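S.,

Sequence below, as promised.
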Amino acid sequence: MYNEEELARPYARALAEAADALGVLDRVRADIEALALQWEACEALRDWCRAFRSQPRAAHKAEVAALWGDSFAPQTRMMLEALAVNGALAVIPHVVTAFRRLADSRQGRVAVSLVFAADPAAATVSALTERAKAAYGPGTAVTVTVDPALGAGLIVRAGNKQIDGTLVGRLRRLRRAFARSE
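The prediction came back faster than expected:
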């Protein structure tokens, strides 16, 4: 079994490098955001990509063209074709995540991720977004997700920094402290 995040990184890196070199990074980023929305919205797409396996190479371009047509920039279509050739379309969400990070870095943006244990109040999200933009600049991209497995609290990730204010994180730290004291 392979690690999907590791498998996705070279595809995202190649796409970001090509798009940046050709001056179409914003266009390709829009493609990636559209692809992420499609992935989230369409269970049939997710199932098809997860079931997709290598077939004769000539079929890959036709499969990608049939599914996405000319809706994406050539660089994005080529990346999707490469994923198809390698039977790796299931890693699309990881390519999206890695590409966002790379594009943000190339464009001098800091990506801030807010992961809440429960649905946050709009005022809380707004206040944290304002604080992130004040700290990192107006180009800061803030994403908000909910993960009930965290129990309570919030994780804030900005660039390579992370603040874990969750119940699960606190319990993990307490467990380590007790293990060290024994």
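Residues 50 and 90 are 5 Å apart (CA to CA).

Coffee later?
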